[in-house]
Design brief:
- By secondary structure, this protein is an alpha+beta fold.
- Helices cover 41% and strands 21% of the residues.
- It folds into three domains: 176 residues, no CATH class; 89 residues, Pdz3 Domain, CATH 2.30.42; 77 residues, Pdz3 Domain, CATH 2.30.42.10.
- Strands 13, 14, 15, 16, 17 and 18 form a six-stranded antiparallel beta sheet that branches. A five-stranded mixed beta sheet has the order 3-2-4-1-5, covered by helices on one side. Strands 9-8-10-11 form a four-stranded antiparallel beta sheet, covered by helices on one side.
- Strand 10 and strand 11 form a beta hairpin.
- Helix 1 crosses helix 11 and helix 2 packs across helix 12.
- The protein is elongated and about 85 Å long.
- The model has no long low-confidence stretch (mean pLDDT 90).
C-alpha cells in the first residue's frame, strides 16, 4: 500500500509540476514537443497526439511513427504536443523546443533559432516558463491544505492536554528529560503546540527547558549538542504522546476477553503496580509473558480487576483506542471554504518555513547520512489506505519538490532560473555550449545525490530503521 500511495502521489506532483512549465510555454507560444509522466527510455507504455483533426494513440511503443513527427504534419498541427507515459517511475519531463535540458544538448538544436523556440523568447518569458513548475507545486500544496481543512477540519492536541505526558528518545533522556515530562517553556518562551516544541528543541539550539514533572516544574539545562546527536543517530522522532491503554476490541483467542474484560476498559495497573501509559504497560506485560497476572482497570469510572494467564508472546490480545479525540481533550476546528483558504495558505507557508529550517541538519558532521530517497518517501505513508494522510503527505511533498527545484543546481529548475536571472542583470546570455556543459555537470551531481540518498535508504532498511 505504501508503494501504491507513493506512486500515486509522485504521479500527481510530476504531472502538476510539468503542467506548470507547459502552461507558461503555451501562454508565450512556445512549442512543447513531448509531455511525459515517468521516463520512457527505449520504450513507452502510452502515447497520444492530435493531428489531422483527430487523436491518435499508441500502446507499448518503442518507436514513434514518422507520420507523427513535426516535419510531416500540417502547419496547424506542428504545435501539438505528444502526451506519453513511460515505464521508469522516477519523475517525468516536458520537452520544450529550443531549451537545453535533460532531453537535449546544444548539438540537438537547429543552427538558427525559430520564433516558437524557448531560446528565442525574451528572458522574462523564459523565467516564467522555467519557474512555472515550482510555482504550480507550491500553489498545489496550498490548495490541498485548504481542501483538507474544508473537508476534514483540523484537530489540535494542545501540548499540555496530553495528560500522561510524553515519551522521549534517549537523546533527550540523556539531557535530563524523564518519560512523562510535559514541556512548559523553552528558553523562557511558553510552548503550547507539539510541533512548535519539537522544532524549537531541534533547530533553535536552546539552553533551558522547563517541564512539568508530577506536580512540580523542573528546569533542564541542555548541552547544546542536540542537533549533532540527532544527525548522527537519526531518530524517527524526538518525542511522542504517551497514550493510555484503552481497549477498543479483541483479537481471536484473546486472553483479556476470556477473563471478562470489555471494550472501553482502561488499564491502570499490572500485578498491583500503578501504570497508565501503553508503553509502560506493554513493557510490563512482555516481562510477565507466560505468567499469571492481575490486570487493574477502570470501567465506566469504577475500578475493577481480573486475573489471567498471559500467553507466551506477552500480549493481552486487544486492539486499542488510538483516536486522539477519544483519549484527550482535542480542539476541533471546522472551516467553511472561505475560511479554509487562508488557513491552508498559513499552514502551507509555516510548513515550508519549518522544512527549510530543518535542512540545517544536512550541514552537520553527519549530515549526508540524513539524505533519504524513495524508501524514505514511501515510509511517510501509512500501511493502510487513509485519504487524509495521503493528501497531507502529498501536500508536504509538493512543498519539498517546489523548494528542492529552486536550488541553483544545473539540471534543476533553479539552475535555469539562476542563468536567466544572470542574463537579465548582466544583459549577457550564456552560450548554448556553456549551458550544455553546466547541464551535464548538474546531472552528474544530481545522480550522485540520488545514489547517496537511496544508498542511505538501503542501509536504513538493513538496520531495520524503516
Amino acid at each position: 500500500m505504501k508503494i501504491l500511495a507513493l506512486l500515486l502521489s509522485l504521479s500527481i506532483l510530476v504531472v502538476t509540476h510539468e503542467l506548470g512549465h507547459l502552461g507558461f510555454a503555451k501562454l508565450f507560444h512556445t512549442r512543447v514537443r513531448r509531455f511525459y509522466l515517468f521516463f520512457n527510455w527505449k520504450f513507452s507504455l502510452f502515447k497520444a497526439k492530435k493531428f489531422d483533426g483527430k487523436w491518435h494513440f499508441l500502446f507499448f511503443n518503442a518507436q514513434t511513427p514518422a507520420s507523427w513527427e513535426e516535419e510531416n504534419l500540417r502547419e496547424e498541427d506542428k504545435d501539438n504536443t505528444l502526451w506519453g507515459i513511460g515505464w521508469i517511475p522516477l519523475g517525468g519531463y516536458c520537452d520544450i523546443a529550443g531549451m537545453i535540458d535533460e532531453t537535449k544538448s546544444a548539438d540537438d538544436l537547429a543552427s538558427e533559432p525559430q520564433p516558437w523556440e524557448y531560446r528565442s523568447k525574451p528572458a522574462w518569458q523564459r523565467l516564467c516558463i522555467i519557474s512555472g513548475g515550482v510555482l504550480v507545486n507550491f500553489i498545489s500544496a496550498l490548495v490541498i491544505y485548504a481542501g483538507i481543512f474544508a473537508h476534514w477540519g483540523s484537530d489540535e492536541l494542545p501540548l499540555r492536554n496530553a495528560t500522561l505526558g510524553y515519551e522521549y528518545h534517549r537523546i533527550l533522556l540523556d539531557e535530563g528529560f524523564r518519560q512523562g515530562d510535559i514541556i512548559f517553556s523553552i528558553d523562557g518562551r511558553e510552548m503550547y503546540d507539539f510541533a512548535e516544541a519539537q522544532q524549537a528543541l531541534l533547530l533553535d539550539n536552546p539552553g533551558e527547558v522547563v517541564v512539568r514533572r508530577g506536580d512540580s516544574l523542573v528546569s533542564i539545562g541542555l548541552s547544546g549538542s542536540l542537533l549533532e546527536r540527532v544527525s548522527a543517530e537519526q531518530p524517527r522522532q524526538l518525542m511522542a504522546v504517551r497514550v493510555p491503554f484503552v481497549v477498543k476490541d479483541f483479537v481471536a483467542g484473546s486472553a483479556a476477553k476470556a477473563s471478562g474484560m470489555q471494550p472501553g476498559d482502561s488499564v491502570v495497573s499490572v500485578n498491583g503496580k500503578p501504570m497508565a501509559a501503553f508503553s509502560d504497560i506493554s513493557a510490563e506485560l512482555a516481562a510477565s509473558a507466560g505468567d499469571s497476572i492481575a490486570i487493574g482497570f477502570y470501567r465506566g469510572g469504577v475500578y475493577d480487576s481480573v486475573s489471567l494467564l498471559l500467553p507466551a508472546e506477552g500480549k493481552l490480545g486487544v486492539q486499542l483506542v488510538s483516536e486522539p479525540g477519544a483519549l484527550f481533550e482535542v480542539r476541533h476546528i471546522d472551516y467553511t471554504l472561505l475560511q479554509a483558504i487562508p488557513a491552508g495558505i498559513k499552514h502551507g507557508w509555516g510548513t515550508m518555513v519549518t522544512y527549510v529550517s530543518s535542512l540545517k541538519i544536512l550541514f552537520t558532521r553527519n549530515g549526508a547520512q540524513n539524505l533519504g530517497g524513495f524508501g524514505t518517501l514511501g515510509s511517510l505513508f501509512p500501511t493502510t489506505w487513509d485519504w487524509y494522510q495521503f493528501w497531507s503527505i502529498t501536500a508536504f511533498l509538493a512543498l519539498i519538490l517546489a523548494f528542492m527545484n529552486v536550488i541553483p543546481i544545473p539540471g534543476l529548475d533553479g539552475g535555469h532560473i539562476l542563468f536567466t536571472l544572470w542574463e537579465m542583470v548582466t544583459r549577457r546570455k550564456p552560450s548554448d555550449k556553456f549551458l550544455t556543459y553546466a547541464q551535464n555537470v548538474g546531472m552528474i551531481l544530481l545522480l550522485m545525490l540520488l545514489v547517496i540518498a537511496n544508498g542511505n535508504d538501503i542501509w536504513r532498511a538493513v538496520r531495520g530503521m524503516f
